What we know:
This is Sulfotransferase family protein. This protein is an alpha/beta fold. The protein has a single domain, classed as Rossmann fold, CATH 3.40.50. It is 48% helix and 12% strand. It has helices at 16-23, 25-30, 42-52, 59-69, 102-110, 127-138, 141-145, 155-166, 179-191, 204-222, 230-244, 261-279; strands at 2-6, 33-36, 77-81, 93-94, 97-98, 117-124, 170-175, 285-286. The protein has a six-stranded parallel β-sheet, sandwiched between helices. Strands 4-5 form a two-stranded antiparallel sheet. Helix 8 (155-166) packs parallel to helix 12 and helix 9 (179-191) crosses helix 10 (204-222).
Amino acid sequence: MQMVFHLGVHGTDGDRLLKTLLNNRAWLLQNATEVVPPARHRGLFEEAMMALNGGPATPEMQHIMMDAMLESEAPHRVVMSSPSLLGTPSRAVGPQGLYPQIGARVAALANLFPQTQSEFFLAIRNPAVLLTKLAPQIGGYEAMMQGCPPQALRWRDTIRRLVSAAQGRRVVIWCHEDVPMIWPELIRLTGDMSPDAPLSGGLLYMHELLGDAGLAKLRAALGGRDQLTIAQRRRIHAEILQQHLLPDALDEDINLPGWTQDLVDEVTDNYRADVAEIAVLPGVEFILP
Length: 289
């Protein structure tokens, strides 16, 4: 059995992947994949990880958790999607940088079902934007940062900890900024959906960027084009985005205490450097647009 943990992160997906997978639930169940909503695993996992204290679950505990969270009989692939798998938003930043506890958390999740094949999926995004999204949820900027200097917010260190803790298990990473271009492939990869399987919600992000009128233009451009390659589809998406992108749809207002434009640029440059490094990191499948 494959246990897929989509870890978020906080301030990226907004449950879109979960909802899209659930919209494709009929096909997934017919193909032995079950999507488990957070309500069926959140408290269960937290209680189990606390009791295990990082150790592996016994066969009896695994059986109890499976019975509690699964509705189908003996699925081949089980998908869970929630940033709560990484804990609360307050764990996003520590004195050492982004998600300092991610290694321990990933190891603990893998140990919930040690006899299964665990996979970890994760989006990253520009830390300057991430902090802007998270600060209101945590009680303000100072409480969130815990003394961490902005220059220490390096995804490369976080992903290295994740890969080390995964111990050879599958790790799939992408940039949240790229999601509109890679969304259909991301859904299919997470749900293990074949390229020819019907996909509901494959244009969700494009709709958010284009609106109703722009989406109609995109559907018209895609209509009647059978067996498009991924590269051809992305080229059409890029052309329609260039022509019909909603005003301010991609703008992000960075308003963090003490942050100047120079600091935003520095953190952004560091992020780009980290992405280039993570994309070729051994043990990482990186989804490129």
